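Co-fold these.
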Amino acid sequence: MKYGLCWIAAMASLGLTACNNKSDAPAIEEGTTVTFALLETTDLHANILSYNYYSLSADTSLGMERTATLINGARTENPNNVLLDDGDNIQGTLLGDLQAVAAPVTCTQTLAMHKAMNTLKYDAAGLGNHEFNYGLPFLSQVTNTDFGIPGVSKPAGNCGAPAFPLVLSNVTSVAAQKPIFAPYAILPRFFTATGPDGSTRQVQLNIGVLSFVPPQILDWDQKNLAGKVAVGGAKEAATQYVPEMRSKGANVVVALSHGGLDTSTYSPKMENQSYHLAGTGIDALLIGHSHLIFPKAKEAGGPALDPSLSAFPASANVDAINGFVNGVPTVMAQSWGRRLGIIKMTMVYQGGKWVTQPTKTTVEARGFKYSDGSTTVAADPAIAAGVATEHAAAIAYATQSLGVVTEFEMSAYFALVGDVSAIELVNQAQLDYVKNLLATTTDPVLATYKNIPVLSCSAPFKAGRNGPSDFTDVAPGASAGAPVGLQVRNPGDLYLYSNNNLQAVKIKGTDLKAWLEASAKQFGQINPALSAEQDLVPSYGTIYNYDVFYAENNALLYQIDVTKPAGSRVVNLTYQGHAVLDTDDFIVATNDYRAGGGGNVPGIDGSKTIIKSPDANQTIVSNYLKQIGKGSGKVTLAANGNARSWSFVKVATAGPVILRSAPGHLALAQASGIAPIVGEGALDSSGFAKYAVDLSK
Amino acid sequence: MMPARTLLAASLLLALAGCGREAPPAARLEALAMTAAQSQSAEAERQLRHWAARGAPVAQRELGLLYASRAAKVEEARIWLTKAALQNDAQAACALGDLARATSTMAGAWTWYEQAALLGHARAALMLGLMARNGEGTERDPTRAQYWLTRGAERGNAHAMFALSNMLRDGEAGPADAARAHEWLEQAAEHEYPAALQELAMQSSDALQSSHLLKEANEHRQSNWNRF
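Predicted complex below.
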C-alpha cells in the first residue's frame, strides 16, 4: 500500500481536509468496500423542542430534541456517517416567527434552529421553499451569505449562521447571473473501509452535495423574490453540476431535493421534480417538501404507506418498500423532526471509482418509536439547554399585553341566542381591513367595487363543541369598573384558528340569504305546540359553521324563525333599513376556510373570492385591538360588544325550550340583557346546563 | 436560469437548429420561458418568439403565458395561446378559458376549459366543475359538475378534491357517499388545500391528528395564501 505524507498528516490531526487533491490520496485497492450512512432530516419547520406553541403544551411526537436521539443512535450504529438537512427548517412555529418577524435576531445572534443544528454538527444542508418566507435580507443575514442581489446586503462582519456549508443549485441572482448560495459542496470524509483481504483501513471519500427548491418559490414569495432571483429546473442544474463535481473528485453525489415524487413528464416548471433527478448521475436522493414517509415505515405498527406513494405506475420503477427510485436509494423523512432518514450505502472500489452496491444498501425513515413500535425515544437534553432562552421568549411573546383593556366579558355561552360579545370585534376587525383594502387598492378590478356594501361574518369557534368547558370566555368578570388587559393570546381565543387567512367574496343577495339559511341549520326545528322539552341547538358538532353577519353600525339585520324547517328560517333581512334584494351586491369579509368551501355554503366554494390576503385573521384581530389600544385604550360593550344583528322571530311555545351551555352564567346573560335566557336548569348527562329559553321575549 | 454565456451559446445552437430543424424539447422551451419571465431576458424572449413563429406549440403557449401577464400584450397573448390551443396544447386552452371567464359574459370559457380538461388539464376540469355547479357561464348541472370535479380530483387538483368531497357528502348529484367524501377530503388535505386541512382537523376525533393538521395549515398559511 502506498501512503503519502499527506495522509499520515491527516491521520495525525483528525478531521483535517488537507487531502482533497486526488494525486495525494493513497491508492485504493480494487475490491475495497465501504459502508456509510447518509442521514437526512427534512422540513423541521422550526420545531426544535417537542412543544406546541399554540396550545402552549408539550407534544412528544415531534421536535429535534428527539430527532437528536435518533441521530446519536444512528451515528453510533454507523461510525461512517454524514448528516444532512433537506430544507424548510427556519420557519413554521411561533418561535420561528418570533425570531424572524416580531423580534428579529441580530447579526451577532444565531437562530435557535441553527444553534441546534450546530450542536448536532450537521455536515451540510440544502434549502427549502420556506427559507424564503422571511425575505432575502433576513436569509442573507442568518446564513451569513452575500447573494449578489442589489438592495440585499448582509450586515458587515460575520453574522451568526450555520457552521456547515449551505448549498443551493437552482437559484441565481438575476443581476449577477450566478447562484445565490454555493451551488454544491464537496465534503472530504475519512471512513473506515474494508479491504479485499478483510482488513480495515481508512479511505477518503469525497461526498458531493447539491440541493434544489421548487420554482414556485417565485409565486409563493413573489413579493420577496420577483425580479431578484431566477429559479431553473432541477434536472438542468444537476446536468450542469454533477459532471463538474465528479471532475473535482466527488466520489459520492448526494442530491438534497426539496420536492416530492411526481412521476409525470418532466418540466422545469413542475413543483415536485425529485423523481427526475434519479437519472442525472447522482448516487443518493434525499427528498422532502411533501412531508411524507418514504420508504414505508418499518417499525412495528408503523403507519401504512401514503396512498400517493403506492399509486405510481410500475413503469415508474419506484420501490416504496425498500426506498429506491430508478435504482437510486431515496429517502423522505416526513417533517417536524419526527423521522430520521438513513441511507446505509455500501460502495465497492472498482475500475478506479466507487460504485454503489444496491443489494448491500438499505434505506429507512426511522421514527421515534422505531425500537418496538410503541416506546417514544427520550429527548436529548443538550438541545433544550441550548435554546432555553429562545423558548422562554416564545412563551412570553404569546402572553404579552396587547395594550388594550376590555370593559366587558367576551364569551360564546349565549352566542346561539343572539349574544355577539365574542364575535362582534372579529367582524369589526375584518370589516375594517377589507374596507381599507378596497379604499386604497390599485387593482383595476377591485377599484370598481368601491361602492359595494361590505359585510363581515364570523362564527363562535369555541362554543361547546368539545364539551361544557369548551366556550370562548375572554376576560371573565370584566366591567367598566374592573377592566381586564388583553393579551396576544386573547385574539387567539376570540379568533381560534391561527391558520386562517382573511379572504373576501363578492356575492348577490340570493347568496347572502342561502348563506344565512346554511348558518341557521344549526338550530333544531321548534314545534310551538309541543309540551315536551325541545333543544334549541341539538348538536354543537359543527357550530363553527354558525356564521354571524355584521355591517358597520349594525346596518345588517335579520331574524331567524326556528319554527320553520331548515332552509326557510331567515326573515326580515334588511340592510340600512331596506329589504335585501336577490340582485343586490355585497362583499363579505371572511376567511379562507369559508371562502374556499368549508361548511359547503351554497355557491361559496372558491369561485367567488375577490380578495385573498396573506394576513391571518387572527393577526388582523390583534392589530385592530392594538389600534384601539393606541386610541381610546379600551373596548366597550357599547362600541364593540352589543350590536346584535340577529334575533329570533318571537313565538310562544307550549313547552320548555332549552339551550345547553356552560353552567353558572345566568347572571352574565341577565347583565348582558340577553332576553331569551330566562333561567338556568339542571345539568344534562354531558355536564351542560340546560338554560331555559323563552322565544317570546 | 441561464447565465448570459450559456444563453448566447444556446442561441447559436438554436439559430443553427432553426434552419428547418425540429423545435427543441418542451423542457428546453419551458426553461427559456422561465428565464424570459424571471430575468426579463430579451434574448430568451427572442428565442421563444423564434420557435413560436415556427409553429412550436409549447413555444407559442409559453410566449402567450409570458405576455398574458403584461397589460400591453394581452391581445398578442391571446393570439399565441390560441395558436397553441389549436395544436392541442392543454395549458394554452386553460389560459384562454381564464381570460374568457374574466369577462362579464364568460363567453367561450366553457369551450376552452373543456378542451383543456379533455386533454387532461386538472385545473380546467376544476373550473368546469365549479361553473356547472354554480350555473356560471353555463347551465347549472350538478351531475356535470360532479363529473368534472372528479376528473380534476383524479388528476391531482386539491381544490377539486375538496369541492367534490362536499358534493359527495351532501349528495348534491345523487345519493350521499360519506366514505368517498372522506377519502377525497383526506386527499385534499394531503395536497394542502387550506379549507380541507381545517375541515379534516375539525372532523377528526383524534386530538393529536387534529392538532397536527392545524399545525400543518398554520405552517403553510403564509405561503399558500394565493396558491389555490
